[in-house]
Amino acid sequence: MSTNYVHGYRSRENRRLQDQADTLLELLHGDTRYPAGSTVLEAGCGVGAQTLALARGSPHARITSIDVSAESIAQARQRVADAGITNVAFREADILALPFEPQSFDHVFVCFVLEHLPAAALVLERLVRVLKPGGSLTVIEGDHGSTLFHPDSAAARASIDCLVQLQRRAGGDALIGRALYPLLARHLEAVRVGPRIVYVDSSRPAWVVGFTNKTFIAMVEGVRDDAVAAGMISAERFDAGVHDLRRTTEADGVFCYTFFKGVGLKRRA
Amino acid sequence: MSTNYVHGYRSRENRRLQDQADTLLELLHGDTRYPAGSTVLEAGCGVGAQTLALARGSPHARITSIDVSAESIAQARQRVADAGITNVAFREADILALPFEPQSFDHVFVCFVLEHLPAAALVLERLVRVLKPGGSLTVIEGDHGSTLFHPDSAAARASIDCLVQLQRRAGGDALIGRALYPLLARHLEAVRVGPRIVYVDSSRPAWVVGFTNKTFIAMVEGVRDDAVAAGMISAERFDAGVHDLRRTTEADGVFCYTFFKGVGLKRRA
Questions:
Q1: Which residues of A touch B252 (CB under 8 A)?
Q2: Which whole number is the average pLDDT over B149-176?
Q3: By CA distance, what is A185's nearest residue in B?
């Protein structure tokens, strides 16, 4: 009985988390739909988390997903195969040395990639090169500076700031979301950027677990040792920050994070 | 010719600003609709900026709008009369000493009021008292900590923080938006809170002028002398912050602000 109950509980819990993940994917990708037969480049697919949503949203588009890591590509390929998806081809490739002719793709899609790269503007230029005139480029990125929570906490903000600083030292930009418009407008026309805000309070328990706890706080916790080793913060202060972030997952807590999604078109000649 | 041109230009500009204001009102109030014949209390109507949207959205509801300032009430009454709106009755009254019997209203509406009051929780309790069981309470508030912009600027953030500090000294809470859920959940059931984000880049010129410049930056500039006099910041630093905020209204700039809207129902006995 006890085992059955626990199993049952876990199933419900997993189902809730899956529902949350699906809702987040819908929030980010729900309005990305590519026509049947069109060719789409997904640049920087990682282990395929977004690839699944992309392929399901455009089941008759022909998607090419690249990543610089052979290991990630292998995982993404397995994930897509397990899901029974057949319209994605994978290829190991460097986003700065794309193995494609100019104007090879009808559309290009990049999600959670530019924030980690030292040369976001250059990457965009390269991606635009392989895009056909009139084709669309879609970019989705986060912005850690958008984080907002109740109760507010200076320690929690300091812990999050470690993530921002470490990403900057690695050449990335954890605040890139807010800068998508100028980045895209430099290379594309008809650019439209919109925020996608994840708002979590205790009336949305699946989001409390799936987003605040298992996505955001887990990400912050993941840099603890690096941040302390780099002398950015004391272990005590960092841990106090994580404690205060967990505090926002209680019944009276609130947590918000804003993603930014931008779409632009390649100029015709 | 010149005069005509200037006049024409001003008309277009005014029209754009009005369009922007209408769009903001739609973003905030578009989903607030009260049934014909229902009684609605608008608590803290000020000069009637939200009253117009409220009354237009629910033309057959009977709205009572109160404010503690006779002068504001006079302005609001004129504004509503000028707009040809006939379903609003005004009354001078203190939100903490409501001149109404318990359970007098079908619905209660509060917008941009709690952030200025020292006792938001107590005010909510009083408002719930005059609400009928099963009736709804709607609250809309800003959150100055949600401000996000590109290019980022520590000086701009410092200037905005003066607003937060001054509001706190006056007993208010400029970060109240994120705390709406626990505030409402203490007194109401079926509480739902959602963010309403204003995202502005140069592809939305009416918002650049109407929201970033004439609403937000104007509000920050309005506290310059008080902030400097209070020793919170030097005049130079404050002015640098405002300069950097204006920088976000240029072609490559971005500005975001998040409002929060919450609705809950009064428990039935």
A1: 181-182, 185
A2: 97
A3: B252
